[in-house]
């Protein structure tokens, strides 16, 4: 009986089953692609670290005479990869400057061993071979011209970046990536040179007198971070120094994990939103399909067909459509896997390309048909229960009001079709259609409200605390590059400069974390971004960046102990990004507070420069640098455009997700509403035939369908608009807290102005074909059949 019924349904209603299968395929494909991509992205950093023998710390003694063999002999050390603190240049890409070439064959072999994606790594004995990272604009087989400095240029602190040393023609032999030798969201890739390049030309990197150039190193510890304390003690013991800076690269790895978790959570949220919308919108199509089937199967009750058999027969066609839809969706999800993972996770993926996530795709192929089957059985059971109850059909207050108001008959009948389920063979569930219209509007408005928040953050770097556009380097480690007063006065005179703030940088220590502190002159009006509270005004006060506050368990009004000094937290917000801190990691001190904490020393001496909106920082930097160059003794002072934090680029990568979700919901809602209209015309053709026999015109019949569609849209707008606006803003606040960034309520006005006309136009467009079918009902044939 099931086989016969399926055959009949496929011949009579194959269009509806194809549409249902496509809706299931679209929903399943998006959900499975999002979940598989999230799983792949979330594991990308750990997979890379497990394959690349990553360094634990970067040791920076900055000493031309440093003996690295003493470090290798420490019991905690597994490998040391020395790196020259010097640049090299690529003639074909004048804007590119390579940095930190390796010295010695340990690099790429026992420490920071990159994953090879194509070709091979450069031969450690050949200086004319290089590898590149995936984002670098060259490929395997291409040639690059490497240019080195002369020994004199290597020792010149005023080197202008135009080298005149040896020229090496090198061939690209591979594409590789690793934690240290990898890409970032803001760079154009790296060149991985052979250790032979430094081995054959050491003087062209660090000079010959060993008074200026030096070699630092990457160090891999045997137990990773667990050996860090012992390594610090041992390093101080064998070198006699306790001031060697150590960059904890495991912190960088944790930052990368945080970034990919954020992206993975965003993909999972997309998948969850699609799943919820699909359950509602596809569910109402399944419910209507089952109601139609049960109506036709009632005639077989007299032949002995039981209610259970009716449920099986009514649920079989949509379940069969769901099986094919799930298979197609799984194939689609596998097909888009080469574009996964996205954002930062893509920079750590060790096996980019096609990826078949068997557990996810297999679970989807099973879950989608089961969900449709469960929904079909539940809808059928409720329909049969309503039949057995014998209760009168529910009447709509809206339709009754329309009748009492004497509105035209097409409007009254359209309201009944939209809001009343009907009786007998013409019974059609209306609540799923109403819920579907609400969810459609809610989801689309939430998606575009969220998208407005993403666009705002992408276009306004001040959401990440970046109110400056240029950074001026005035000194480092107590050495001044030039006269700060005249330099800053010259910068302030530029017509495109609005604010200049001089700041000193130092590091405050807590038991488990370090806080990069920036001084802020008393009374400075330079715009700083705070999430809450205020900037410090007294020497015993501090404003913390959001991540530092979280790590210290502090908030406005708390007291924290940093480097042995108790400081009251007056605000939580964002700071300047620096060489060893991010915009969300650090704190603000007053100038007097900085002097009390660090005495007369500082790590860096900088100035942050804010510009007029729309100004090109590169042009201003070039113009101001020329003016500064004319000042006596200011030749070493340099300016550069401030680099946007990677988090802002990560947020930009989210732009596509709400757009995809909005487009998906539009398609799904259109299919569901179209199916609802078509089903209503089919199931209620007897009522339409009676109305036609009593004198209703074809135009009036079309108006019935138009009224039904418009009422669905109006109800969807009435409930979906406020809920969608609230949902979009709530989701964006969650993302802003996780990113982190300064929350600015998204401007949803454009979406609010468009969604009403767009929804009404769309549903009336969908009503054209069902209205035409309703107007063409063969009155005599339908009445004889009924």
- Which geometry do the CA atoms define? elongated
Give the C-alpha Rg: 34 Å
Tally of discrete structural domains: 4
The main pleated sheet reads as: 11 strands, mixed
Bin the strand percentage. Answer: 15-25%
Sequence stretches where pLDDT stays below 50 over 5 or more residues: none
- What is the number of helical segments per DSSP (H or I, 4+ residues)? 26
Mean pLDDT: 87
| Spatial separation of the terminal alpha carbons | 24 Å
Helix % is 40-55%
- SSE-based structural type: alpha+beta
- Number of DSSP E strands: 23
Helices and strands, with pairings:
Layout lengths: L1 H11 L1 H29 L1 H8 L5 E4 L7 H5 L4 E8 L2 E4 L6 E3 L2 E2 L11 E5 L9 E4 L10 E5 L3 H4 L12 E11 L13 E3 L1 H6 L2 H4 L8 E7 L6 H12 L5 E4 H49 L9 H29 L8 H5 L9 H32 L7 H8 L4 H11 L11 H29 L10 E7 L2 E2 L3 H9 L4 E13 L4 E7 L9 E4 L7 E5 H7 L6 E4 L2 E9 L13 E4 H8 L5 E8 L5 H13 L8 E4 L4 H8 L2 H28 L1 H9 L4 H41 L10 H18 L1 H8 L3 H7 L1
Parallel strand pairs: 7-9, 16-21, 18-20
Antiparallel strand pairs: 1-11, 1-12, 2-5, 2-11, 3-4, 3-8, 6-9, 7-10, 8-9, 13-14, 13-22, 13-23, 15-16, 15-22, 17-20, 18-21, 19-20
Helix pairs in contact: 1-10, 2-9, 2-10, 2-12, 2-21, 9-10, 9-12, 9-15, 9-21, 10-12, 13-14, 14-23, 15-20, 15-21, 15-23, 15-24, 21-25, 22-26, 23-24, 23-25
